[in-house]
Each structure stands twice: as structure tokens, then as C-alpha cells.
């Protein structure tokens, strides 16, 4: 049923790839990047469509100044378009995040915009859509979990969002934040998760999975 | 440590596991499917981990507006245009290519600009052209579908439908609450798809209640006949409703239960009638928040003595409604702009 997909868009699907198929979707990143650097406008349109909102959202977590963030994105893309560097880019996503993060920090320092930082940088919420959290017992747990997550340090929340929401690897995360190696990134995530262990191991947690029917289970792992 | 010794937090921190959940990598999928088959006892733990991973998101997520999206794109193209004096053809050629892609994007997004969508992700609408209508908290909207079917959309709801229905099917997608008066057309059944189930009618009037933050989704039929079907049902026969009947969906069992319903309670909102009958406090709060577009906070809920609230209101102000409910429920309240504070008394 075609309409079923539309419904999931109403629910707020994050992956723009699924909403707007492009001929380049099945190309590996290095190939897309090569085309982009050589001036292929379709490759640029593809990259822009996939990443511009992700970068913008990421930037908005640091600064409330949308104009500043748009400037950084613009300058970054203009620079990349003009550069003829032949370096291989394995993951466009992490390359863009890294460049963008570096540029943003520089620009914010230069313009001393740290004076109006975001109140709640990288705050996490747990969506109800993807889970069965709307069961009442789960609701309690969701609240606990959300509160504990937001008590973590900003750096930890950053790492969690990049790892879980953006789907970046430890290596990519360590790259973006200039951490020593991917182990440091893993440590960051693992320590945050480990501090939530008490909630995970609370008996209420297992109430629902124990009741989970095979139907629900199937729909979880078959996408 | 081996995977078989992993606890929930270990799976959560595992890169390969996270990759399985987030990416569509057939190799990773193959590994986990096989591992799961060998360790069926770990299924609930994996499921829980998957659920947590999928539900993590930014609390404040920001998107470029359609205008910002377009002008930023345009600026990047303009600013990175190579300066080539005396070599016009190449430059013109480049501009042509750029203009072409810009036009492509503008054309596909243009469809959207007309739809009054502010902070939505840019996307290209493919055939058939879909129309989306949304209501904010406190708003209602009445309009007609391409086939003449009348729709009334309640607060905080969205509906999406094709600009023209196909020959054999009338299908719309909806989240929230809406009332439908379906134009009769026996050759083209009319279907409303919501999160968990679909409701199909030939020519009737019915109400669908399917807010994503509500547990009990239901369909209430005023006239005619409708068929309701779970989207994930495995060969279960559909449930048929007659006039005056209501189907409530049980998410756990993936089944419907049928009751007789109070029309005022479930479809009165169309005429601005707000009714509660032995309603739970939490339901009253979420209904009022949507109806009046406010945020309600509660103090001293442990002092609440009843969980059955009743009252019927016809186009009344929030203050009036809270006065009546507060009298029987023994709470006082304060309204300041869009936020409300309810405090239970001793």
C-alpha cells in the first residue's frame, strides 16, 4: 500500500534518503565525492540535500544564531566546490561534520558568540514513535532515561547523538572531535551508557519485552 | 567478551550492533540474523536495545525553512562560480547547468511552497502529487477531498491525500483525529490509514482518533458501515462496524474490541462540543492541551481524590471548563497566556 509510506513521513521520518530517492543513492561515498570535486552539479545537489539540514541542526546545538550557522555552511561548500583537492573521502558524512565543526568553532571564537550559547546544548529526547514507549510502564522508564541522559555532560550527549542518531562510527566521532583514537570515542559512549545501567536493569524494563509478540518482533528487525 | 555474554549496555555500545540498527548493510544484517537464530533467548534484549537506539533524538531539532534551503543553495552556486574573463562559453555553460539543477529543485519544491509548510524537510514530491493539511494545537479545519468527501480535522492533526484519487481507490493517510463524511462511490472504497490500522468505507460518516501520543486509537461510526484492519495483522479477518459502534485498537494484541459509543463524547468536537464522562485525569489534560493549544502542568497530583471527570461544554473558554472540572475535582488553576498550572487542594 503506497499510502502507508506517506504515513510514516507524517510521523517524522528523519532519513531524507528514504523520502527522496536519487540516482546517486546507490553510489559509494568516494565515487560521489569524486564527482562532486570534479564539478558534477548532480553530485553537489545530492550531497546538499542529504546533509545540509543535518549540519544546520548540529550547528544549532552550539549557537542560536541561524545566520551564523548558514554562513559557515555556505563558506564550507563554496570552499569545497572551489578546491580541486584529490584526497579520497571515504565517508562524506563524517568529512562534512568534521570540517563544519572546525569551521564553526573558529567562527564562533572569532565573533565571540560564545556569549549567547544554547541553553541546553545537545539535549536528548526519546521519541515515542519508534518504540513501544507509549505503554504506561514504558512511559515511566522513558522519563527516567530521558532525565538521566540529560544529566550527562555535553560532550557525552554529543557523542551519544552522533553515535545513535547520526549513525557515525567511533572512528568518525573521534575524527570530528579530534580525540586520540576510536577507543576514546567508545569510552565516551560506553561510560555514558554504563551510568544508565541501573535503569536498564530495573525490573520494569523487562516487562514489555517479555510480553512482546512475535509480530512486533518481526517488524522490528525486518525493515 | 563474547556477544553471548553481552548485557543490554554492551549491545548499546557495540558498533556493529548500532550499525545493524542504523544502516542498511546486508553483510551486517546477515551476521546478526544468524547470531539471533543461534541465540533466540537474547531476542528481547536485542529488541530493547534496538528500540532505545531508534528512539534517541535531538530534543531541539532545527531545520532550514524551504526559503532558507533554496537561497543557501543558490548562494553557494553563485559564490563558487569560477571567474573566467574572456571565456564566456564555459561560464555560460556552467550557469546553464547550475540553472538547470536549481530549476529542478525549485520546481519540485514549488509544489511544497504552496502547501503552507514552514519547517519541513525539503523533498521532491513524486507522482501522484500529494496534498497535506495540518492543524496546530487549538485549531480545527474543515475542507473537502477531491471526491467531495467532507473532512473535519481536529487540533494537532495532519492528513495527506493525492490531488486526484485513482480510479479504483480513495486512500488518505492521517495522524491525530478527523471526522469523515464519505461521498458514496461503490466502485472506489475510501480508506483512512493511521499508525496501526486502516479504516475502509464505501459511503458513511465516521470519526478516527489516532494521535500518536495516545494509547487507545479508535474508530467511531455514525452512519453506514466500515471495515477496520490492523496494518500488521497476520491473516486475521477484518472487523466490521455498524452504525453507533466503535472499534478500539489494542496495540499489544493487534486486535479490535467493539463497543457502543456516546456520540457527544467522541464526535461532539465537530460542533465545538467538548465532553468528558468519567474520563481519566490524564485524558482530560491531553484533550484540553490539544483543544485550547496550551501546556498544562500539574502540582500535587498525589492529592487528587478522583480519576473520573465529567462535564459537557459547548464552545466555552478554558477558564469556564477548568472552573467546572476544578469544582468537582477539587483543584485550583492559574492561566497565563498559553500555560496553565493546576494545583490539587488538600
Topology:
The complex is a heterodimer of chains A (about 220) and B (about 350).
Chain A: H1 2-10, H2 16-19, H3 29-37, H4 41-60, H5 66-82, H6 92-110, E1 124-126, H7 136-151, H8 154-165, H9 170-176, H10 182-194, H11 197-200, H12 203-211, H13 214-221
Chain B: H1 8-12, H2 15-22, H3 26-38, H4 43-55, E1 56-58, H5 66-79, H6 88-113, E2 130-134, E3 141-144, E4 150-153, E5 158-162, E6 170-181, E7 190-193, E8 197-201, E9 205-210, E10 218-223, E11 226-230, E12 239-241, E13 245-250, E14 255-260, H7 263-267, E15 273-279, H8 281-292, E16 295-299, E17 309-314, H9 318-329, E18 331-336, E19 339-344
Helix pairs in contact in B: 5-6
Please describe what this structure looks like:
- The complex is a heterodimer of chains A (223) and B (346).
- Chain A is built from 13 helices and one strand; from the N terminus they run H-H-H-H-H-H-E-H-H-H-H-H-H-H.
- Chain A is mainly alpha-helical and 223 residues long.
- In chain A, 34% of the residues are buried.
- Chain B has helices spanning 8-12, 15-22, 26-38, 43-55, 66-79, 88-113, 263-267, 281-292, 318-329; strands at 56-58, 130-134, 141-144, 150-153, 158-162, 170-181, 190-193, 197-201, 205-210, 218-223, 226-230, 239-241, 245-250, 255-260, 273-279, 295-299, 309-314, 331-336, 339-344.
- Helices cover 31% and strands 30% of the residues of chain B.
- By secondary structure, chain B is of the alpha+beta class.
- Chain B has four domains: 3-55, no CATH class; 66-113, no CATH class; 131-264, Jelly Rolls (Sandwich), CATH 2.60.120.1440; 272-344, Phage tail protein beta-alpha-beta fold (3-Layer(bab) Sandwich).
- The chains are: A mainly alpha (223), B alpha+beta (346).
- Chains A and B meet through helix 1, helix 4, helix 5, strand 1 and helix 7 of A and helix 1, helix 2, helix 3, helix 4 and strand 1 of B.
Amino acid at each position: 500500500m503506497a499510502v502507508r509510506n506517506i504515513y510514516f513521513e507524517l510521523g517524522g521520518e528523519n532519513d531524507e534518503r528514504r523520502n527522496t530517492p536519487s540516482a546517486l543513492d546507490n553510489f559509494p561515498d568516494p565515487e560521489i565525492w569524486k564527482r562532486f570535486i570534479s564539478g558534477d552539479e548532480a553530485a553537489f545537489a545530492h550531497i546538499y540535500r542529504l546533509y545540509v539540514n543535518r549540519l544546520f541542526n548540529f550547528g544549532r546545538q552550539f549557537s542560536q544564531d541561524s545566520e551564523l550557522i548558514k554562513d559557515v555552511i555556505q563558506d564550507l561548500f563554496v570552499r569545497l566546490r572551489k578546491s580541486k583537492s584529490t584526497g579520497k573521502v571515504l565517508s562524506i558524512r563524517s568529512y562534512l561534520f568534521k570540517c563544519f565543526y572546525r569551521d564553526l568553532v573558529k567562527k564562533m571564537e572569532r565573533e565571540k558568540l560564545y556569549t549567547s550559547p544554547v541553553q541546553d546544548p545537545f539535549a536528548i529526547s526519546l521519541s515515542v514513535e519508534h518504540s513501544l514507549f507509549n505503554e504506561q510502564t514504558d512511559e515511566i522508564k522513558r522519563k527516567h532515561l530521558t532525565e538521566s541522559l540529560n544529566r550527562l555532560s555535553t560532550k557525552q550527549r554529543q557523542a551519544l547523538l552522533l553515535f545513535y542518531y547520526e549513525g557515525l562510527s567511533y572512528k568518525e566521532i573521534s575524527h570530528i572531535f579530534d580525540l586520540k583514537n576510536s577507543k576514546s570515542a567508545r569510552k565516551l559512549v560506553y561510560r555514558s551508557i554504563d551510568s544508565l545501567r541501573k535503569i536498564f536493569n530495573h525490573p520494569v524494563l523487562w516487562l514489555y519485552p517479555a510480553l512482546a509478540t512475535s509480530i512486533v518482533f518481526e517488524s522490528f528487525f525486518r525493515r | 567478551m563474547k556477544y553471548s555474554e553481552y548485557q543490554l549496555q554492551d549491545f548499546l555500545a557495540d558498533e556493529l550492533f548500532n550499525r545493524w540498527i542504523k544502516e542498511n548493510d546486508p553483510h551486517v544484517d546477515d551476521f546478526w540474523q544468524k547470531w539471533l537464530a543461534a541465540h533466540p533467548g537474547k531476542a528481547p534484549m536485542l529488541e530493547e536495545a534496538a528500540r532505545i537506539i531508534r528512539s534517541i533524538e535531538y530534543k531541539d531539532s532545527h531545520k532550514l525553512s524551504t526559503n532558507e534551503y533554496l537561497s543557501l543553495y543558490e548562494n553557494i552556486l553563485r559564490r563558487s562560480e569560477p571567474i573566467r574573463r574572456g571565456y564566456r562559453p564555459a561560464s555560460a555553460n556552467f550557469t546553464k547547468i547550475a540553472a538547470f539543477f536549481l530549476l529542478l529543485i525549485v520546481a519540485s519544491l514549488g509544489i511544497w511552497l504552496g502547501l503552507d509548510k514552514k519547517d519541513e524537510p525539503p523533498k521532491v514530491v513524486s507522482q501522484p502529487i500529494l496534498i497535506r493539511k495540518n492543524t496546530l494545537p487549538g485549531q480545527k479545519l474543515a475542507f473537502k477531498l477531491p471526491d467531495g468527501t467532507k473532512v473535519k480535522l481536529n487540533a494537532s492533526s495532519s492528513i495527506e491525500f493525492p490531488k486526484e484519487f485513482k480510479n479504483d481507490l480513495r486512500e488518505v493517510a492521517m495522524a491525530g483525529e478527523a471526522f469523515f463524511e464519505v461521498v458514496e462511490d461503490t466502485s472506489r472504497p475510501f480508506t483512512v490509514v493511521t499508525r496501526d490500522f486502516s479504516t475502509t468505507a464505501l459511503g458513511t460518516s465516521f470519526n478516527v482518533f489516532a494521535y500518536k501520543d495516545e494509547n487507545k486509537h479508535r474508530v467511531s461510526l455514525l452512519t453506514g458501515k466500515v471495515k477496520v484492519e490492523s496494518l500488521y495483522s497476520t491473516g486475521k479477518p477484518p472487523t466490521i462496524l455498524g452504525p453507533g459502534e466503535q472499534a478500539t485498537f489494542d496495540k499489544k494484541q493487534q486486535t479490535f474490541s467493539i463497543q457502543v459509543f456516546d456520540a457527544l463524547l467522541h464526535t461532539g468536537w465537530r460542533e465545538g462540543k467538548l465532553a468528558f464522562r468519567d474520563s481519566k485525569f490524564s485524558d482530560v489534560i491531553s484533550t484540553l492541551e490539544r483543544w485550547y493549544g496550551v501546556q498544562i502542568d500539574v502540582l500535587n497530583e498525589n492529592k487528587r481524590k478522583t480519576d473520573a471527570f465529567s462535564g459537557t461544554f459547548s464552545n466555552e473558554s478554558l477558564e469556564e471548563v477548568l472552573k467546572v472540572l476544578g469544582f468537582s475535582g477539587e483543584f485550583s488553576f492559574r492561566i497565563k497566556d498559553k500555560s496553565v498550572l493546576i494545583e490539587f487542594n488538600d
